[in-house]
What does this fold into?
Amino acid sequence: MTGIAKVVTITGPRTIEVREEEVGEPAGGEVLIRSLYSGISAGTEMNVYRGDAPQWSEHRDEATGLFTAAGVPDFSYPLVYGYAAVGRVERVGTGVEAVAPGDIVFSPTPHRSLTKTPARNVVELNRVREPFHGVLNANLNTALNGVLDAHSAFGDAVVVSGLGVVGLLVLQILSRSGVQPLIGVDRLERRRTLAHQFGADVTLDPQDGVAERVRELTANRGADVVIEVSGASSALHEAIRTAGRDGRVIALSWYGGSFEHLRLSDEFHHNRIQVISSQVGSINPRLGPLWSASRRQELVEQLLRELDLDPLFTHFFAVERAADAYQAVDEMAPNLVQCVLEYGNA
It folds into this structure.
């Protein structure tokens, strides 16, 4: 036996326990990682934590891509979840050459203090400014994928709706691309302030009447592109209203709950709005054969070193307080952007 891991475990809807589990030596092709930090997702992970994810009641067939209630659901309690961990390589199995003991790495693995995973899944992060920045590796892949799916041109009016961690990363990336105006939308003043800091020309509260205000800013054209990151059906409906004729809405969130606020008989139909789902598992085929997930990851590693990331990290909790951390994200604690678990090994 190598050691005992503290493992964050979802034992029921909105219920977290920290359990212990024995961890053995890494097998061939594996690495053993001692965790430093892991990030809690305010979107995907909250859907899982709240019990809203379809996998709790359905199974997704990998061959067809369809969800069905037949058979055994993909998720069951207790569930160990998470996909944004940073740690120090402690040992490597036979055949591992890409990383070595002592390296700082990102791994798309659950919240646990000690973990084994195939070496091919980890990303070496020795050159990042701060190790905890590395928990954004997954978020940056999602944000960059959304920007690539948006395919905005120089001079396009672009709106980013929902200024959580992914939305603020999207905004920082877009600020380098020459879109104008670049507009951020969020109900929280602190997040709108960060958006200005990161390059937004204008920020709006959703209660301001976003579609109307964007028309005022664009000579009644509306937005060329709206990237919707909030995960709220009402925000998706307003994004459709905000886009101009033949405009594009990029749905970057994993939406939970019901869609009583979404109407497809109004602006969606009459203004010929394109709604595009951006899912990080694949690259937009319209980019052509030169693009791949590995090329996207190369850019993400560059962005981890170049973007202004410190202001995004607002809440840190020791892993033993994981239940409090999840509750803070679920209830949107004041000024929260990115919440991180710490493992005491830094």
Summary: Residues 149 and 194 are 24 Å apart (CA to CA). The chain has two domains: 3-130+312-342, 139-287. The chain has a mean pLDDT of 95. DSSP finds nine helices and 17 strands in the chain.
